[in-house]
Amino acid sequence: MVAAETLEDKDMHLVGIPSLGVNKRMDILQLFSRINIVLVVIGIQTQYAIALTGSDGGRILIGCMMVPMLPMVICVVAGYKTKVISVVLAIYLTLFSMYCFPFFLHLAEGSYFMFWTQCFMFGINLSGVGSLIYIADLGAGTYSVDHMKRQ
Predict the structure, then answer these.
(1) What CA–CA distances, in Å, run from 148 to 18, 80, 86, 122, 140?
(2) pLDDT at 9 over 80
(3) Do the Cβ atoms of 98 and 137 come closer than 8 Å?
(4) Among residues 30, 132, 6, which one has the least CA distance to residue 73?
(5) pTM across the whole model
(6) Residue 95 above 80 pLDDT?
(7) Please, are residues 1 and 30 in contact by the beta-carbon 8 Å criterion?
(8) SS3 of 141, please?
(9) C-alpha–C-alpha distance, residues 41 and 38, integer Å
(10) What span, in angstroms and rounded, lies between the C-alpha atoms of 48 and 19?
(11) What's the CA angle centered on 65, arms 55 and 126, to 5 degrees?
(12) Which residues of 37-68 are buried (b: 16+ CB within 10 A; e: fewer)?
């Protein structure tokens, strides 16, 4: 996403003459980064659900987590209401990580190993939340349902 934002046109722009503002590389890179961020978020959720409950019970927990998350993920990839849905998904993932990795409870118990392990897992999950907030800031881009509806 950062690389897509920093790409610039190398065409010469004259003062007072409007340009089309077409930057195809930036739009394609923004689409692929949206897809990549969604895959990272799904991978984090699946990995932690399996690690928390084992191989068989993990399937049930993955299903319970993916049911509310799957329509939101599809909307972010397609670019439909991307800003709103990425904020809602970021809040959902933050609450999920606070529920699954309560590092603040282990410090009071004196279990420092569990505290640092839970802090590490919580931080990994928050990296996905940060990328979703970045999507909310940039928007969907040119290759999205929202952009097609505007035209």
Answers:
(1) 22, 10, 19, 37, 11
(2) no
(3) no
(4) 132
(5) 0.74
(6) yes
(7) yes
(8) coil
(9) 5
(10) 48
(11) 95
(12) bbeebbebbbebbbeeeeeeebeebbeebeee
